[in-house]
Design a protein that fits this description.
Layout: H1 3-7, E1 18-29, E2 32-40, E3 50-56, E4 62-69, E5 76-85, E6 98-106, E7 114-121, E8 129-130, E9 145-153, E10 158-165, E11 168-174, E12 181-186, E13 198-207, E14 214-222, E15 232-240, E16 245-247, E17 255-256, E18 264-268, E19 280-284, E20 299-300, E21 307-314, E22 317-324, E23 332-338, E24 341-343, E25 347-354, E26 358-366, E27 370-377, E28 380-387, E29 390-397, E30 412-420, E31 424-431, E32 434-439, E33 444-449, E34 458-466, E35 469-479
Parallel strand pairs: 1-20
Antiparallel strand pairs: 1-2, 2-3, 3-4, 5-6, 6-7, 7-8, 9-10, 10-11, 11-12, 13-14, 14-15, 15-16, 15-17, 18-19, 19-21, 21-22, 23-35, 24-35, 25-34, 26-31, 26-35, 27-28, 27-34, 28-29, 29-30, 31-32, 32-33
Bound molecules: beta-D-fructofuranose.
Length: 484
């Protein structure tokens, strides 16, 4: 099998051909999850942006549909959102429920060229009509003005739009989906910034696990200044009154949704069925530092595994926690469990071959002054270490060993502080060219691409380097190929 073929993931969403970046227009309606995405159908590098489109009933097996939005004389179609207009408040759907999509119209070669456009569909996304009065929000004199996220705010009976406005977020309101009034800006002096604009906001209300209270969570992409360098996703926790988002942490607090290199442009699905109640996100599994250079040719980039987000009270404050969607269990094959094991001498703790996609779960207890290496690919190594009662994780990724690096930014080496030493669980999804690691009930997420030189056959091993480790509750499953 050619490396190019081998790298196409088995259980993650990829475009049939061409380039993919951000997830767009995530909405659930009539039993279908819609996934649109930034798409260049004519080449596998970024170019004139379209919205590719696929639907799924389980968030794993996707049916590709025709392109939802294509460039026109007004410009190309940058990122945005979709939602259900329940009860036809917009008047666009003859009294029925319909789908609204908001996207950024980016015009060619003029200053302040980004504005927000509306498109709508009355046949569950099979055909989209661009609103004749576009743009619905003209550019207000801000160079980076894009990535509209729209939702219905029940409490104040209005639609809310968030859009990137340079290094902050602009918040708007509307009662007819077409005319929008500016409410406020958020964020200039908050969280992580770099020299570029913030990107791809999302805002949602979420319950605090085990309590009746809720909070509003604002998710934002940082293109170059993320935790592991390059692109990454941060979030804020606070309140939203329909006009203003109030961050409840100090201005310098930075909360990372994922600590790895390849988790960007996060968006959550709108209009999940009430009986479900989950907040499910998906992210682009790449990084603008090298996205255009990764070693695939006919297609480029995939989405992450969809994950359910919950808000939990931790000793550090309220934090978003991740869990792979439960639908993933439907792909399980060849279950393997291992007896609990205490390891007191350096050497292998477990070791197995894998070739396509798999999920590995276990819990790990390390004694003080101990360290253990978990190595799912020869090019990716996680070192857990305990020193003076503090647990850390070092993550080292190589490029393609032995061949010229495709990009100098790809290899990396960073450490995440995991706090006081304790027994923590690990949940690892490996696909042909990616590793998504959730630790400590999903409190920490680390997502990385890997392009193994050796091809499909890999070894996943754990070895004690020093001290003592106890591994409990180890379960491993192969994941079956997803077919639409
Ligand atoms: C984020 C982003 C968005 C923009 C889109 C263009 O990855 O830069 O801000 O809308 O990609 O493809």
């Amino acid at each position: 099998m050619s490396a190019e073929k081998f790298y196409r993931p088995l259980v993650h969403f990829t475009p049939p051909y061409g380039w993919l970046n951000d997830p767009n227009g995530l909405v659930y309606k009539d039993g279908e999850y819609h996934l649109c995405y930034q798409y260049h159908p004519h080449d596998s590098v970024w170019g004139p942006m379209h919205w590719g489109h696929a639907v799924s009933r389980d968030l794993l097996s996707w049916t590709h549909l025709p392109i939802a939005l294509a460039p026109d004389a007004k410009g190309v179609c940058f990122s945005g959102t979709a939602l259900v207009d329940k009860g036809d408040k917009s008047g666009l759907f003859d009294g029925q429920d319909g789908l609204l999509a908001y996207y950024t119209i980016t015009a060619d070669n003029v200053p302040f060229n980004q504005s927000q456009g509306l498109a709508y569909s009355s046949d569950n996304g099979r055909h989209w009509t661009k609103y004749a009065g576009n743009p619905v929000i003209a550019n207000p004199g801000i160079e980076d003005f894009r990535d509209p996220k729209v939702f219905w705010h029940e409490q104040t009976q209005a639609w809310i739009m968030l859009a990137t406005a340079g290094q902050q977020i602009a918040i708007y309101r509307s009662t007819d989906a077409k005319n929008w009034q500016f409410s406020s800006f958020f964020g200039e002096d908050r969280g992580a910034h770099d020299e570029r604009a913030w990107e791809c906001p999302d805002l949602f209300e979420i319950g605090i696990a085990g309590s009746k209270e809720t909070r509003w969570v604002l998710v934002i992409g940082v293109q170059r200044g993320a935790y592991a360098r390059g692109s990454g996703t941060q979030y804020f926790v606070g309140q939203f009154d329909g006009e203003r988002f109030i961050d409840e942490n100090t201005p310098e607090t930075v909360l990372w949704l994922d600590y790895g290199r390849d988790f960007y442009a996060t968006q959550t699905w709108s209009d999940m069925p009430a009986a479900d109640g989950r907040r499910v996100e998906i992210s682009w599994m790449s990084n603008w530092l090298y996205a255009n250079q990764v070693p695939t040719q006919s297609w480029r980039s995939s989405m992450t595994m969809p994950q359910e987000l919950t808000l939990k009270a931790t000793p550090d404050g309220l934090r978003l926690c991740h869990a792979f969607i439960r639908e993933l269990e439907g792909l399980y094959q060849n279950p393997v469990s291992a007896a609990d094991k205490t390891q007191t001498t350096p050497g292998a703790v477990f070791d197995f071959d894998w070739s396509q996609a798999q999920r590995l779960q276990f819990s790990l207890e390390l004694k003080d002054n101990s360290s253990l290496v978990l190595q799912p690919f020869s090019e990716l190594r996680f070192t857990f270490a305990v020193h003076k009662g503090q647990l850390t994780l070092r993550c080292q990724r190589h490029g393609q060993i032995g061949v010229t690096e495709f990009d100098e930014h790809f290899p990396h080496d960073f450490t995440v502080a995991l706090g006081h030493n304790r027994c923590i669980n690990a949940d690892l999804v490996l696909d042909r060219s990616s590793a998504e690691l959730l630790l400590d009930g999903g409190r920490y997420a680390i997502t990385n691409l890997v392009f193994p030189k050796e091809g499909p056959a890999q070894q996943c091993s754990a070895a004690l380097v020093s001290g003592e480790a106890i591994i409990r509750d180890l379960h491993r499953h192969d994941l079956a190929k997803v077919t639409a």
